[in-house]
Amino acid sequence: MRIVDGSSGLGPWASRLTLWVAGVVCVLALSLPSGVRADTVSSEAGYWRGVATEVSAVFDEMIEAVRRGDDKAAKRSQTRAYFGVFEDRKMEAAIRKTFGQARAYEIESGFSQVRRLIGKGSTDEIQDARDALVGLIEHDAVALDQAGVSKDVYDVR
Fold it and tell me: CATH number of the domain that 81 lies in?
């Protein structure tokens, strides 16, 4: 069958089905409770990308606190992003084991830089530092998922 008009040849039902599927996916995504942990959600993207998404979400809360002028809440959010997500979900250990000490230190330094800027830097400076750090974490998350690094990185069973 030769298609001249550029359509898929599947008919009008195909585009309606695509819209329906997209709508269902959106509804399901929006129905997840906030604060969903990466290790409790089965994701096609992978465990480490889920951790990176969670770090990013906590940093979003931090940026909102900075915009409100609540430095104390911003620092609590930064601490939670590092200790409550990045360290607790073993991403720091996975990065150290997979990419080496220098890469782990680079990311840890990024967390420190963000914390130092709270109360001293402008919102834009904090946002830029946050974006750079999240970019590194997201990059490494993709690589960790592609390499099949277990969330139990130091499990010796």
Answer: 1.20.120
Instruction: Give the number of other CB atoms < 10 A from CB of residue 105.
Output: 12
Measure CA of the first residue to CA of the last residue in the chain; give whole Å: 56
- Other beta carbons within 10 angstroms of residue 90's beta carbon come to 22
* Average pLDDT over all residues of the chain: 80
Q: How far is CA 48 from the centre of its chain?
A: 8
Report yes or no on 155 lying in a domain.
no
Tens of pLDDT, residue by residue over 78-104, are 999 999 999 999 999 999 999 999 999
Q: Crossing angle of helices 91-99/101-117, nearest 10°?
A: 140
Phi, psi dihedrals of residue 154, rounded to the nearest 5°: -110, 15
Residue 28 lies in a domain: no
Instruction: Tell me the pTM.
Output: 0.70
Range of the domain at 101: 47-147
